[in-house]
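sry for the spam today, last one i promise. struct tokens for design, 508 residues
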């Protein structure tokens, strides 16, 4: 039993070192990180894999018993009974030669189909949905991106789910190779604290304390925090007094320190906003903006006397005036949302930006699908969008349902370009609440819209003269906690000529 544990432990350490040292990016994979909904399936997948391993071992045990009784039978069969005098009797010699040949063939046939081969085939088949190396790396990068946007230390991020030293160390390495030395330093420090607590235990670990101290020194050095770098290099030298590389780094740091006047504080994350998108995501709305937002109004709308809306008027709230952004509350029921999610789940594939470009998106971490009007719920939702906006759906795109992944976000972009028949307006339905993060923000006007399940927001991307409204640049903030689902309807110019007459004025 002890031997088996050792074998497994060695295999895990070998794998961890591999994961930590080699930056393999495989191009295939299931890309779980881009949809939280698929992440949930991994729990089931893990249980399945252990169950499969168990069934394999049971089969292996049966197989061993079968082989052993086969051996007994071979030993006892008179067919293989040793002939007498094979060295003097040529017939006995012939008999022996033939017996050995047949025995050999029998064993080959009996052992030909090793259960290991079948099991390995299963392990590499598509039946098992195993995250790729790229999935693991992207998951790590998504967490680091969350830290950057929301200014989070490892302790903030791991409040709900503590990481072990290997998991934390791997995050540090990922931040380090991305030149994010401060975040790398904080993850290595987090790792060191756990390391100190567990050092006396015989835990599974892919790295040594020396490696960790070297990374701490190196992160601090690259960040420019020389006294901190010197401290960790000194710690390292105490444990490894003959290490010439460390002596060299210590000398370098001391020399540089003499000349350099700045000493950035590596322990404190800079909370000054360099980027209005990130500030908005963190909820830092300007005083002026929030005052202006409060004066905007709510009302019931019948879409100018639309018969479908007279009995059930829409709850309309003006979220912003210039550009006009309208929120419709309770535009879709929980039941309808559940059905749309159920239809979409099997169809979701990694989001692709633009139509037919075929490249997987690096700026949007989500999975999306366009829904045909095969289901009555899709028809109803599309009709409600037509009623609310008063626009023709004739040239609109199909309803697009999206589920975001770990830290899922969509960086700043415009929905429209400068081609013919552009996306004149966007109708964005929130199909979930998001516990923390995930706001839709308009950095040029300083507006942040919180997802609210069942509501939708609507705006025009184009001025009446057909030019792009530059104020409609927007982004989806990273999801810090929650499973964000949205549905988009992009409505195009053609077909709206008599509904929203175009204008030659530059100002409309
Ligand atoms: C993160 O944790 C630090 C230290 O505990 C705390 O001061 C800070 O307010 C936390 N930040 C956030 C965004 O929760
Ligand atoms: C870890 O332990 C070492 C030696 O026991 C100590 O010098 C160091 O300050 C500890 N570091 C942390 C982060 O607790
Ligand atoms: C959606 O799918 C789940 C799981 O398959 C099922 O339990 C549920 O009843 C479905 N909901 C609707 C509204 O069809």
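last one done:
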């Amino acid at each position: 039993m002890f031997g088996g544990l050792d074998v497994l432990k060695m295999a895990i350490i070998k794998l961890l070192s591999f994961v930590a040292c080699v930056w393999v990016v495989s191009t295939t994979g299931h890309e779980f990180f881009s949809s939280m909904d698929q992440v949930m399936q991994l729990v089931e997948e893990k249980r399945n894999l252990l169950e499969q391993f168990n069934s394999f071992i049971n089969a292996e045990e049966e197989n061993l018993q079968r082989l052993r009784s086969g051996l007994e039978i071979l030993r006892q069969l008179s067919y293989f009974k040793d002939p007498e005098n094979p060295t003097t009797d040529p017939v006995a010699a012939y008999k022996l030669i033939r017996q050995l040949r047949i025995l050999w063939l029998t064993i080959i046939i009996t052992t030909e189909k090793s259960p290991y081969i079948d099991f390995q085939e299963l392990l590499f088949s598509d039946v098992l949905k195993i995250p790729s190396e790229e999935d693991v790396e992207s998951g790590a990068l998504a967490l680091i991106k969350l830290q950057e946007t929301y200014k989070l230390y490892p302790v903030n991020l791991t409040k709900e789910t503590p990481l072990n030293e290997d998991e934390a160390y791997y995050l540090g390495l990922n931040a380090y190779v991305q030149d994010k030395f401060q975040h790398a330093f904080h993850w290595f420090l987090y790792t060191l604290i756990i390391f100190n607590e567990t050092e006396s235990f015989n835990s599974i670990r892919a790295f040594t304390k020396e490696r960790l101290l070297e990374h701490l020194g190196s992160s601090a050095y690259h960040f420019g925090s020389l006294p901190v770098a010197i401290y960790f290099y000194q710690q390292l030298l105490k444990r490894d007094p003959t290490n010439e590389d460390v002596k060299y780094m210590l000398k370098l740091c001391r020399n540089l320190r003499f000349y350099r006047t700045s000493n950035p504080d590596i322990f404190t994350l800079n909370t000054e906003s360099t980027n209005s998108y990130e500030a908005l995501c963190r909820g830092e709305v300007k005083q002026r903006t929030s005052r202006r937002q409060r004066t905007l109004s709510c009302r019931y709308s019948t879409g100018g006397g639309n018969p479908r809306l007279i009995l059930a008027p829409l709850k309309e709230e003006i979220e912003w005036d210039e550009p006009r952004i309208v929120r419709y509350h309770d535009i879709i029921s929980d039941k309808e949302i559940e059905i749309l999610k159920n239809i979409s789940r099997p169809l979701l594939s990694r989001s692709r930006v633009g139509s037919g470009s075929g490249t997987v998106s690096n700026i949007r971490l989500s999975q999306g699908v366009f829904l045909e009007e095969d289901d009555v719920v899709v028809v109803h939702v599309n009709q409600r969008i037509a009623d609310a906006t008063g626009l023709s759906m004739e040239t609109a795109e199909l309803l697009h349902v999206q589920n975001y992944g770990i830290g899922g976000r969509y960086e700043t972009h415009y929905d429209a370009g400068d081609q013919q028949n552009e996306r004149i307006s966007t109708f964005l339905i929130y199909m979930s609440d998001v516990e923390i993060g995930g706001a839709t923000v308009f950095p040029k006007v300083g507006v942040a819209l919180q997802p609210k399940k069942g509501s939708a927001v609507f705006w025009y991307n184009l001025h009446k003269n057909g030019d792009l409204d530059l104020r409609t640049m927007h982004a989806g903030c990273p999801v810090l906690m929650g499973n964000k689902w949205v549905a988009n309807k992009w409505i195009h110019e053609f077909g709206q000529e008599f509904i929203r007459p175009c204008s030659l004025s530059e100002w409309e």
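Residues 31-123 form one domain. ok im logging off now
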